[in-house]
Specification:
By secondary structure, the protein is an alpha+beta fold. It contains ten helices and 21 strands. It folds into three domains: about 5-120, Sandwich (Tumour Suppressor Smad4); about 140-220, 2-Layer Sandwich (Phosphorylase Kinase, domain 1), CATH 3.30.200.20; about 230-410, Transferase(Phosphotransferase) domain 1 (Transferase(Phosphotransferase), domain 1), CATH 1.10.510.10. The strands form five sheets. Strands 8-7-10-11-1-2-12 form a seven-stranded antiparallel beta sheet, with no helix packed on it. It has a five-stranded mixed beta sheet with strand order 4-3-5-6-9, with no helix packed on it. Strands 13-14-15-17-16 form a five-stranded antiparallel beta sheet, covered by helices on one side. The N and C termini lie far apart (about 80 Å).
Length: about 425
């Protein structure tokens, strides 16, 4: 084809990068995957491989070569190995779908890359409408009626909304694709949606669905009419609070047991991630915020937590998690649940001082203040249960969340 060059346009139609497109007009091999140096880089598709596939453009045609050993590639629903591509073909892998268009161009334009979703936006390639959408509040989400904004952080916004198909109220969690949003923070957001979809349990905030709209990833969750714990318990005596809080933490341990059995560890159990609301005449707790959750069965493989990082909340974190979050096991959740109950009962952290620097974290004091010094009125067997669960050595704690839950049964209401 000397008179006309081949032009291959690749559009991302589904997944975290939906809206991104690229045009290749010169012969060559173009890599696709999560790697930052890929010709089509999709860093926020956590289910894709770093080098997922390669698209080879020649003067006579366009060929896809599957590369990954861990993540499959499909073309129009069929597994791909080395396959000739045609206009209209749909390529799927991970959370991503691509549409391929192959055509002739008399005078090929230079290669252009438009980054939608979470990529770096090139101002000359983004329309004013798209630009404004990325920096302003959502006005609508298909299938939902927005009611009010519940909260906003550096990364995203949570709305109360009505799901039109069911008329139920939900919490819509969105991520803002702002330039300041770090790749790690975006990964945590997407991982939370991925994990919550797998953890459907009465004691875990229920995941409903995820979507991509207006350049943002959105996922809908169960909306909990949570109450403030201090307000809830201010009329209770200290003696009455003990069985109440033991009952609440037993419900959290029920959720953790379910997650652990499926290979996931929460890594950030604390009072702020426990939502307490009414269920008829009873109070019930639900565990929220799986942004730091990790598949402990794949520890050392996933790079979501870099080696040596400290992830979590120090006041409820066991010694081994302070040293390195990457290899967290279910024992960290057992410790954190016990530290949370300690906080509920004592009104303070189990530690005399908390580390403020990395050096303090690495060599800081992890000795727990004896609970009987703070609450001498508590039953000695309950204090023994908590101190065992708060042992510095993971092997000295309860072996499972279910075991700790059973140990708390005599003290719960």
């Amino acid at each position: 084809m000397s008179a006309a060059a081949l032009q291959v346009q690749v559009k991302v139609t589904e997944g975290p990068h939906a809206g991104m497109s690229t045009v290749w007009t010169r012969p060559g091999r173009y890599s696709v995957g999560r790697h930052e140096q890929a010709a089509l880089s999709l860093p926020y598709d956590l289910l894709a491989a770093e080098h997922q596939c390669q698209i080879e453009v020649t003067e006579s045609g366009c060929v896809l070569q599957h590369l990954s050993n861990t993540s499959g590639t499909q073309i129009n629903g069929s597994p791909a190995s080395r396959t000739l591509l045609h206009s209209g073909d749909r390529v799927r892998f991970g959370m991503t779908e691509l549409r391929i268009d192959v055509e002739q161009a008399a005078e090929p334009p230079p290669t252009v890359l438009k980054r939608g979703g979470f990529g770096t936006l090139a101002p000359t390639l983004v329309t004013s409408a798209a630009s404004s959408t990325a920096t302003t509040a959502l006005s609508a989400v298909p299938g939902y009626r927005l009611i009010r904004k519940l909260g906003e952080g550096a990364m995203g916004v949570v709305y109360e909304a009505e799901q039109l198909s069911t008329r139920q109220r939900v919490a819509l969690k969105t991520i803002i694709p702002a330039p300041g949003a770090s790749r790690g923070a975006v990964q945590m957001f997407l991982r939370e949606a991925e994990i919550m979809a797998q953890l459907q349990h009465p004691r875990i905030v229920r995941f409903i669905e995820s979507a991509h709209h207006a350049g943002r990833v959105i996922f809908a969750m169960e909306l909990i009419d949570a109450v403030d714990v201090k307000t809830l318990t201010q009329k209770l005596t200290a003696t009455q609070r003990t069985p109440f809080f033991c009952g609440i933490v037993r419900q959290v341990l029920d959720a953790l047991s379910f997650a652990h059995e499926r290979g996931f560890v929460h890594r950030d159990v604390k009072p702020g991630n426990i939502l307490i609301g009414r269920n008829g005449l009873r109070w019930q707790a639900k565990l929220a915020d799986f942004g730091l959750a990790k598949n402990f069965q794949l520890a050392g493989i996933s790079q979501i937590t870099e080696d040596g990082d400290v992830k979590g909340t120090l006041a409820f974190m066991p010694p081994e998690q302070r040293l390195d979050s990457r290899y967290a096991k279910p024992a960290v959740d057992i410790y954190a649940a016990a530290a949370t109950l300690y906080y509920f009962l004592a009104g303070a952290s189990p530690f005399r001082t908390l580390p403020r620097t990395i050096q303090d974290i690495r060599g800081g004091d992890t000795t727990v203040i004896p609970l009987n010094e703070v609450r001498p009125d508590l039953p000695p067997p309950l204090i023994e249960v908590l101190h065992r669960a708060l042992s510095a050595n993971p092997r000295d704690r309860y072996a499972t969340a279910t075991e700790l839950r059973s140990a708390l049964h005599p003290f719960a209401r």
